[in-house]
What does this fold into?
Amino acid sequence: MSVLIGLTGGIGSGKSTVAGLFNQKGIPVYNADEAGRQLTDSSELLQQISTIFGDSFISNKQLDRKKMATLVFNQPEELKKLNAIVHPAVQHHFENWTKQHQESPFLIKESAILFESGSYKQCALIINVEAPVATRIERVMKRDNCSREEVEARMNNQWTEAQRLKRSNYTITNTSLFETEQQVDTILKILNNL
It folds into this structure.
């Protein structure tokens, strides 16, 4: 039976970088955010989204993510409606993925909203990735080609750093790749001695 490890952190903290480092060490990583993006473009979920939010959120048989983000990150009730569609689909997809990797001693579930979605309850332990807020904002503005205000709106829909730290077993400070790699190696040594 695999030990499930949750990997989370605020937007722009560098979760994907850390996930990639664990994956390079041979630990399978499930990216819940990426799975959610892929699944929202399935015909089944697009139909549900269209029914709840209207056809104007669908463009060329894909979710208009920018339009949806503008809606849900400013209206928490709308975000709850979207999550009620996406989260069950991601959970089902994740369960199938875990069956395919059941021989691995450790599995990592990477999710920006691990705590907010309740997914953390499935995990034996949690790793939080942190970085200074200014760095995170800069990274996301560059990555997503969006404004500071848009990034801050997304941050306001996530748990605070203090909330994540309180519930996490380990924290990786992701400011330089070299130091981040060292922290990943330290955690792996601890895990291998469990």
About this structure: The CA atoms of residues 9 and 129 lie 5 Å apart. The longest helix spans residues 76-100.
